[in-house]
Amino acid sequence: MSNILVKEIYKSYGNTSVIEDISIEIKSKEFITLVGPSGCGKSTLLRIIAGLEQINSGKIYIDQKDVTFVRPSDRNLAMVFQSYALYPHLTVKENMLTPLKLRDLSSFQRFPLIGKYFAKKKLEKLDILVSETAEILRLKKLLNRKPGQLSGGQRQRAALGRAMVRKPIAFLMDEPLSNLDAALRVHMRSELSELHKKLGITFIYVTHDQAEALTMSNRMAVMMDGRILQLDEPNKIYSEPNCIKVAEFIGSPKINILPATTDKLGYLSIGNFKSNFKTKIKNTKIFIGFRSENIILNKKTNQFNGRVKHIENLGSDYFLHLKVKSLSNKIIIRISQCDFTNIKVDSSIDFSINLEKILFFDVDGVRFNASYHTFQKKIA
Amino acid sequence: MNYDIGQPIKHFLLVLGAIIVILPFYSMMSYSFQSQGEIETGKNSKGEKAGFLGTQEKIVDQFCFKSNTPEKEEVNSLMLKMPGKTEREVYNILLKDVTENCLKKPAYMNYTQAFTKAPLLRYLLNGVIVTASIFLLQVVVALPAAYALAKLRFVGREFIFTLVLLCLLIPIHAVALPLYIMLAKLGLTNSYAALIIPWTISVFGIFLMRQFFMTVPDDYIDAGRMDGMSEFSIIWRVMLPTAVPALLAFAIFSVVAHWNDYFWPRVVITGDPDLFTPPLGMRVFKQDTEGDLHGPMMAVAVTIVTPLIVAFLIAQKRFIEGITFSGMK
Amino acid sequence: MNSRIAHYWFVSPALVLMLLIFGIPIAIAIFLSFTDYSLGNKTFEFVGFENYFKIFTRSSYEKMWGATLRYVIVVVPLTVGLGLGAALLINSITRFSEIYKTIYFLPVMATLMAMAIVWQVMLHPTAGSINRLLSSGCEIDYIYNLFTLSFVGQEASESWYGSICNGNMPNWLGDKKYAIWVVCFVGVWQGFGFNMVLYLAGLTSVSRELYMAAEMDGAKSGWERFKLVTWPALGPTTVFVVTISFIKAFQVFDIVEAFYGFGSAGPSKSAYVMMFAIFEKGIKQNLIGVGAAISVIFLILVLSITLIQRFLVERKVHYS
């Protein structure tokens, strides 16, 4: 049972701290994603787990064993790098053989020219391992090519192959899809998910792309400024973010955040609009958040009227950017193709917010439970 | 790199190397301050260690002494003023005077001899004239050619570029002899022209600038043309300012090579000391003094080496970049 | 000005000069190498391959080949090796790397003629500081034991250092046993800093992620990482560095002139390198045919080294 435990780690370069008190427990066979904007420390965290970066304090355990001071090559983890980091002078096959040879052959057996005659049996075994892996990744035909002769997707698979071939405890992936074009990226997402199921190995995956995190992972950790803001299943992160930062980072288009108030009876007001929606809090300034799909068109309840400033056509859906008179922020709403009739820039749109699905945040941006509805869990 | 316990060992090796590299620079400076005796024994007349600056005990400058040795007439005229003294005594008095006047600190003596025993200033001036002219002519020739090869389309462009690449392979040493013959036939040996002409074309400069111009967007040139500039003024008013970094790298490369060059001046300058460049002058200085005047010789060496070294120490980043940039092509 | 014609105006000075300074002289050199021409003579005769024949058979040219090859074979590997070594060391230290870089680069900037003369003064058999240093070591027991190898039971007085301590100071430049090697030493001293900066430039282009990948793959020692990542990545740099080191080594001249000077090429001509031979035969002795022939051989050597380099570069698969 592989189980990676990161405990209270701190990391800084000189005076700038990059990781501040991060603890995370990664379950065996889990696909966990570290997601966040660039510079949030997610890659550093991954490298710390790999052992490529040293930490100022804290502990790292793999399979209950303290590996904090164990060097990377002895942690039995494999890593796929953003640039793939394939050895450019070696063929795909040689690239995949490298980690096997470095682990399984003595330095004498790796001696150039003559060494191979003393390790024939072993080398044959390694060759079999390579071709098995190549089979899974459909790399067979590419084995004798050098990285320079491969396309981006092929290099990606070769890098995966090099990581897979020695059956590590966990895969660490550092933005492995960011160098691919959009179509291939979408395709590789499903391939990686499938591969994860097939191999049954822990995946720790770093990305800045929330779509990758949402689509592939069992759990995801949203990171900002060297901290983990929330660690949960993707759908929970989406529907129940624990702060405005997480809510804004996850989901496309960005969640709408509006200032709001409650009156002395707890009724919610947004801008000029006084709703008959009752909350648990009274006489407070708060923020509310609602996602672009949580609106109802042309309903006469809690009406807003907005002028269309910009239309984004996504094919299946349309995003409308609206300016609402009584509100200072722009609102983005999503409407499906069938609702999209004769809307142009400067058209006027009536809509209402689905108040049952709004999220409440206090002035510091922390989400709290203010609704009498039951679907919102109490945040610890 | 994370698991490096070898830092002290690495520094030890590097310091060892650095000592060997610096040793001659140290010795050169140190010798240039010391008397012959101190250079030869490492000790002063009292047997103490001489140290970097020497002990600066005054010693008699032999040249001063020789040229001021009392003459018969001086002795005679002084004898009139000092009745009762023999000629010998008067001579000795005079000699003592001269000796005292010629007592100098070794450092002062070495450097004055360096500048008086040979026209060192003239050598330095020649060095400046030659390196500056070479660089300017190289730029005047190379810049338009590089521009045309990079940005203009005309019949034969590829052919000319191939020629440039071909010439890039030929070291000037290989054609030194025929060039010498050609210059001799034209009666041009022993002239500035002989020192400069063979270097006026730097195929390397053309290549370097052409590669650089390839990276300059065509928009700049088109904008120039739209403003009604001629191709000629585009080169000097549009391309030249953009090329300053590459030009600087080339300048460093060119100046270092030609200030230090010894082979070519040795070939074409045979007798006229007025045309000696610093390295040639240094070599002749050594020859003329039979290599015995170590102090003054080291003073000459310091004088010749210092300008480039100081420039290098001031702008070492630029120098190293320039040389690497030029080196990597 | 018609711009079409302007194009040719721009290249014509360069073209004419290339012809005058490279094209015609090469033709002249090849032509004269088959003659017995001397400057000042009105006539000359074709002698066929006689000049070349002499160069490859006569004993005086044997000296030239001996000195040149010794110099090249010693100086090229050492300047390349030390350049690489220094670059690797400097690249892997955390402090003072700029200082080392500056120091190692000093000899590249300094006028070689002047510095060679400084070395000569330092290597003077009786008054030089090097021999003074050597003899001062004789009085320190452990140094004496170490260098005479007497600590492993060697007879001290029979060893090289032992004989120095008995008063036989090496005459570095005057003894043909040492002469060419001292020339080589100064060549290495002057040249390796240049290769070092080229290697340092090459090292900056090696991806950090590759080192991390090697570490993850189990390359634990620095040597394994060097073999797996650094050395292959430096391939193109090495080909280039080796090529220019070869070409520069064939051109050695200043050091020999500084040490031995006008007319002599060291004890029993032991430092009679190629450039010196061209200079002596072609210009001083006015045997232009022979000088031209050596020039042509030199040119062929340089061109073939460059061709080998091009071949090696082309053969390499261009990776991304």
Walk me through what this model shows.
Chain A has 380 residues and is an alpha+beta fold. Chain A folds into 2 domains: 4-244, Rossmann fold (3-Layer(aba) Sandwich); 256-368, Nucleic acid-binding proteins (OB fold (Dihydrolipoamide Acetyltransferase, E2P), Beta Barrel), CATH 2.40.50.140. Chain A has 8 helices and 21 strands. In chain A, a hairpin with a 2-residue loop joins β12 and β13 (273-278). Chain A is elongated and about 85 Å long. The longest helix of chain B has 32 residues, at 120-151. Helices cover 72% and strands 1% of the residues of chain B. Chain B has 2 domains: 7-106, no CATH class; 117-328, MetI-like (MetI-like fold). A two-stranded antiparallel sheet of chain B has the order 1-2. Chain B has 329 residues and is mainly α. Chain C has 2 domains: 21-123 and 173-315, MetI-like fold (Orthogonal Bundle); 126-170, no CATH class. In chain C, 72% of the residues lie in helices and 0% in strands. Chain C has helices at 3-32, 50-57, 59-92, 97-109, 112-122, 129-138, 141-148, 160-165, 179-204, 208-217, 222-233, 235-250, 254-259, 274-284, 288-315. In chain C, α12 packs antiparallel against α15 (288-315). Chain C has 320 residues and is mainly alpha-helical. The model of chain C has no long low-confidence stretch (mean pLDDT 87). Chains B and C meet through α1, α2, α7, α8 and α9 of B and α1, α3, α4, α5 and α9 of C.
